[in-house]
Amino acid sequence: MTTDGGPHPTEQVRRRKYGPLYSRNARAVVARGLMATKSSNWTVMASGFLEPVLFLVAMGVGLGSVVGSVQGPGGQEISYSAYIAPALLAVSAMNGAVYDSTWNVFFKMNFAKLYQGMLYTSLGPLDVAIGEIFLALLRGLLYATGFTAVMGMMGLITSPWALLMVPASVLIAFGFASFGMGITSFLKTFQQMDWVNFVMLPMFLFSATFYPLSVYPEPVQWLIQAMPLWHGVELLRQLSVGSFGPIMLVHVGYYVVMIGLGLMLTTGRLRSLFLK
User: Fold this and answer.
1) What is the b/e burial string over 196-221, where b = at least 16 CB atoms within 10 angstroms of the residue's CB?
2) pLDDT above 70 (res 32)
3) pTM of the full predicted structure?
4) DSSP H/E element including 69
5) HSE of 66 in the Cβ direction (CA atoms, 13 Å)?
6) Is residue 41 over pLDDT 70?
7) Where are the domains of the chain?
């Protein structure tokens, strides 16, 4: 009981429909994140967008003039620039989501102590998880929209189906963001955070981003196909030319499962860390 005779805030939390897990107020977390981004993080967001654009110009235009045409989805011949552009879009969605759900979360959790403060209010761990993941998705959406516009200006969009790459990129970002926050909760030092880049770099280089999967030995192919980025690359590459098939359901299903497991991991970790 409080001094005025009302129920204690902790008791109010226990009584609500979803208990201490969810108060249906993730928008408060989103609003705070947008204010912080507006004041300090816009330059970081701009750099994250420019990186894949520079790769597209350097590799697509530079190396593409040497490579020429390559075989795209469905067996049709496309330019090398059109081949790697959807892959770089998937990389851009991954990078934006991972940055927001790892480095930002790491600082808020271990130095700013932001989540502890949030969870001392009526907010539950699922509110925090949904809010932070939504911010990561917003970054992924902005990156995907901007990069798709660059592809259009370079003449790399040849099918109206390519516009579906934008919502598909958000799906990719959702998958990485939902896991990124949960994994970051286990990391306590900046040295441990280097493992994030250690995992992302091989995915970027070996997920058929710049050349087809068939160039690798079969055992390596199986390993690459287990990586989440490969599914994103293949999904966007097929959408870019309007090549549809049953395999697309596998790519989408992979991310749906990834999102579900990631939300469970993130929510469970926040609850165990801050609601003891």
Assistant:
1) beeebeebbebbbbbeeeeeeeeeee
2) yes
3) 0.81
4) strand 69-71
5) 4
6) no
7) 9-274
